[in-house]
């Protein structure tokens, strides 16, 4: 059955799905693998989530003219945003849009694309913090956008900034919990970084099964992805660098022991008894 989603010119339909979850948890690697399939389009984070927020605000009651906008019109406007953004530049039959915000927008996405699925990439939180701090230290001569290009502070300041509710980790973590326990959880799959890098064939097979697409033979020894220009502009060259071969990294943490231990028990998705919505965790 073809998913109702973005209509291309002609009779063919384009399916839309979403990549979300926690930072530094494999979303770029997942996109790099998905784009090996000539039927798919996937990339790093797009601006669409922010554009959806702006449009929702402009169509809300803070605008006195919103009385002329019905919910059906809101749905059409938001769906049209995707149509306009992707347009004819992408010949793909299946589009994956990436943003950490999508987990917080599951009710909106369900209203626009009721057959869409969201793949939430996760990782043990201690190693997420380690990955960010490793990138900061690697680019010590280039202040990062992640911390508003501030040059002062320590790993403790940076960790607090990431972990608070508005931080790049805290917000996405809370958004993931909202989606995991919310009423639209049937549209969510949790993909662990640990599975993706150690058993990519099983991980990708689960993704295809979840979105209802026929299997595709991926090449895990020749992965291609280039975001060098974007990374350089953010002050973090190599931030989205993907290794040519999918492999599990083996390394010691750069974090002080107390910071690493702080997040050891935050992988709530591993608690089967608490998975009351039956979310698929791979």
TrEMBL record:
Keywords (A to Z) from UniProt: Transferase
EC number(s) on file: 2.8.2.-
Transmembrane segments: none
Entry-linked SUPFAM superfamilies: P-loop containing nucleoside triphosphate hydrolases
InterPro entries: P-loop_NTPase (IPR027417)
Domain of life: Bacteria
Entry-linked Pfam families: Sulfotransfer_3
Listed GO MF terms: transferase activity
Name of the protein in its database record: Sulfotransferase family protein
The organism of origin for this protein: Lysobacter yangpyeongensis
